[in-house]
TrEMBL record:
The keyword Transit peptide does not apply. GO terms for molecular function: aminopeptidase activity. Belongs to the peptidase S58 family. This is L-aminopeptidase/D-esterase. The keyword Protease applies. Gene3D superfamilies: L-amino peptidase D-ALA esterase/amidase (3.60.70.12). PANTHER family: BLR5678 PROTEIN, D-AMINOPEPTIDASE. Keywords: Aminopeptidase, Hydrolase, Protease. It comes from Brevibacillus centrosporus.
Length: 319
């Protein structure tokens, strides 16, 4: 076991990024069609094919999920994932070839790097080609390449974040994993110690509590269109579509434990939940463990990030 989401049977991860433009995308490929649910809690989401995942709707499985930077422009990356899957004969059989089912979500990273360069069809295709069962690369990679946190004291006082992953394995064979790109407006803190790991900085460069900053204003100081945390949780359980959605709902608790504030009016926080296997477990257990591994993945996202775009990271300030 490598301690990342690729521990989950049936899950492969691929990244592609432009490190000069500071943007990228991450692809979660299923080795076989898998049940998927989604829960969107932020009020400014950028998503693709999420209506399809409603338990009321017909198609119950997906073939991949695309997480991307680039704001709404980054939704183009999923088309490249579809191209890769079609070339390999993977998708929903419709009698005239296949239609790959690839939901996705994006985060806003246009404020760093070169905003004119965004994840596109070619980058999505490249990420799909790169997908493997190897331990997940973390930090300034894939959808986390341009991710930042702590924007309530002005973007110049923000910090670099990134992409993180974690997993847990039980004795009964259940494996639960998470992957997340953390682009929160607020700060990330360790729930064990309440210590801020990355967040807004004051004029002396000291990290401060995001909500304390908000208290100074009679209006919301959250910069519009600069945020959103996007994630996938997965397990080798057997779940229905509605159960997968419930797991996604419960997984949001992992964000609430580690990011403050979360689910704001200017966030698009979105979590997909995938079930790849046949292990039978309580939905409540799977949801609880999904929140646990997602919280761990959020911490990894800031700990593994490197300074970039003129912004320091947790690791650079900890030296």
């Amino acid at each position: 076991m490598n301690g990342t989401i690729t521990d989950v049977p049936g899950i492969k991860i691929g990244h592609a990024q432009n490190t000069d433009a500071l943007t990228g995308c991450s692809v979660i490929l299923m080795e076989k069609p898998s049940v998927c649910g989604v829960d969107v809690r932020g009020s400014a989401p950028g998503t693709r094919e999420t209506d399809l995942l409603d338990p009321m709707n017909m198609v119950s499985v997906v073939h991949a999920i695309c997480l991307s930077g680039g704001s709404a422009y980054g939704l183009d990356a999923a088309a490249g994932v579809m191209q890769y899957l079609e070339e390999n004969g993977i998708g929903l059989e419709v009698g005239f070839g296949v239609v790959p089912i690839v939901p996705g979500a994006v985060l806003f990273d246009l404020a760093v790097g070169d905003h004119r360069i965004r994840p596109d069809r070619q980058m999505g295709y490249e990420a799909a080609v790169n997908a493997s069962k190897d331990p997940v690369q973390q930090g300034n990679v894939g959808a986390g390449t341009g991710a930042t946190v702590g924007k309530l004291n002005g973007f110049s006082n923000a910090m670099k974040s990134g992409l993180g992953s974690a997993s847990i394995t039980l004795e009964n064979g259940l494996v639960v994993g998470a992957i997340v790109a953390v682009n929160a407006v607020g700060h990330v803190f360790d729930p064990q110690t309440d210590r801020i790991l990355a967040g807004p900085r004051d004029e002396q460069g000291t990290m401060v509590d995001s909500v304390e900053v908000m208290k100074r204003y009679s209006f919301s100081p959250i910069p519009p269109g600069t945020n959103t945390t996007i994630a996938v949780v997965a397990s080798n359980a057997v779940l229905t579509k509605s159960e997968a959605k419930k797991v996604a709902q419960m997984a949001h608790n992992g964000l609430a434990r580690t990011i403050r504030p979360i689910h704001t009016m200017n966030d698009g926080d979105t979590i997909f939940s995938v079930a790849t296997g046949d292990v039978k477990c309580s939905v409540d257990l799977i949801g609880s463990l999904s929140a646990d591994v997602l919280a761990a993945a959020v911490l990894q996202a800031v700990k593994q990030a490197k300074a970039a775009g003129g912004l320091p990271s947790h690791s650079s300030l900890s030296k």
